[in-house]
Specification:
Elements lengths: L3 H4 L5 H16 L8 H8 L3 H7 L3 H26 L5 H19 L1 H5 L6 H28 L7 H15 L4 H5 L3 H14 L31
Helix pairs in contact: 2-5, 5-6, 5-8, 6-8, 6-11, 8-9, 9-11
Length: 226
């Protein structure tokens, strides 16, 4: 017998499918062992036969779960980009990278890409979506800055550094070892990519004020030199 949560939406197959995807997403991303269809059926209070009427197999169901997660990621990143429109280039990059890293951590993309769910096709799907939704946009942002003369380093190098930092940060023990949150370390990583990590030393000793590689702002029509 089905539970109340399902019986309330039994008037529409589309709504029922939404409920299945919603609950499957919660179970799939929960800590511990990967979700089983038996566990999902128990949580929904319906038979596996009912689930399979909407999704022919577990892979198609998890693909729907991931589609929903990445659609939410795209909306969040679009909002971050819109909020930074008209801001200095470094502000736009920083906001996008922080939002991207936050979203990657929220959906557990690093763990998905390294095997959660035990399906090579799903791992490939996650990698492709992360590349399309996040990394290609980061690459284009760096290329734009390079065209504007705002970057000293090649945009391809910055893109590779950023990819490695984001992916590594969420799979390492560094947050635990440094007693910092992943979000705090992400902000430090972004600032290091943008501005560098070493302060030049004055001839008489001491550190010179840290200067950003990327200008903070410029007037409209002002020439920008590399």
């Amino acid at each position: 017998m089905e539970t109340d949560v399902v019986s309330k939406v039994s008037d529409g197959d589309e709504r029922r499918a939404d409920v299945i995807v919603e609950v499957a997403g919660r179970l799939f991303f929960a800590p511990g062992a990967p979700m089983s269809m038996d566990e999902l059926a128990r949580e929904l209070g319906m038979s596996k036969k009912t689930i399979y009427r909407h999704f022919p197999d577990k892979r198609s169901l998890l693909a729907a779960v991931l589609d929903r997660r990445f659609s939410a990621v795209e909306e969040t990143l679009a909002a971050a980009a819109d909020s930074a429109e008209g801001q200095p280039f470094d502000v736009r990059v920083r906001r996008f990278l922080v939002a991207a890293g936050t979203e990657l951590g929220r959906i557990g993309a690093a763990q998905l890409a390294t095997g959660r769910g035990g399906d090579a096709m799903l791992r490939q799907y996650v990698e492709q979506r992360v590349d399309t939704v996040i990394y290609r946009r980061i690459d284009e942002l760096f290329r734009h800055g390079h065209r504007q003369g705002l970057l000293q380093a090649p945009p391809e190098l910055l893109g590779e550094i950023t990819r490695g930092a984001l992916e590594r940060l969420f799979t390492s023990r560094l947050p635990h070892e440094t007693d910092r949150t992943a979000a705090e370390l992400l902000r430090a990583t972004v600032d290091t990519v943008l501005y560098g990590a070493v302060r030049p030393t004055r001839a008489g000793g001491g550190a010179e004020p840290l200067g950003a590689v990327i200008p903070a702002a410029r007037d409209d029509g002002e020439e920008v030199s590399p």
